[in-house]
């Protein structure tokens, strides 16, 4: 059995998002705007009558999930596999600082070439596999009557969903980054696969401030 709908929801804004700093797994809280974003998005998602709620244990995702839990009474089920990509010692750098200090690495990231984040962080391929497997576990715990919400992070969600859907890696850049507190809605399809119902839903187009530099 699998869930009837999966909602993969990016956390609200943080101060580091606003400053264009790379967050990775640094445990940065929501700022005031991020809290307001989470409250507004939670009210919209609550109308879908979600039945289970999962979240990354990093506080920006956990705090976002708590706004939905407060409206629905759902217990938050935390999973470290839903964390953002590990950037190791790059955490706290701006994109401009990264390009100045590690120009070759920054160029490879922007061109979509394989590149480990930091000295001992993850590659995009590694975080995609970690997240995809976590999403598979979450989906398998539901039934066709369930709507499951997963509160998480931008880059991990984008590439993890692509791998989960079986999209070839060459096509991952065609899927834009998620704005703060927007979400992706997935529905079951034939042959035990999934399809995209909505991508980056929740608002009119907004700038994407995240560890996912597609710009």
Automatic annotation (TrEMBL):
One of its GO terms (cellular component) is cytoplasm. GO terms for molecular function: phosphatase activity. Substrate binds at residues 10-17, 60. CDD domains: HP_PGM_like. InterPro entries: His_Pase_superF_clade-1, His_PPase_superfam, PGM_Phosphatase. Transmembrane segments: none annotated. It comes from the Bacteria. This is Putative phosphoglycerate mutase.
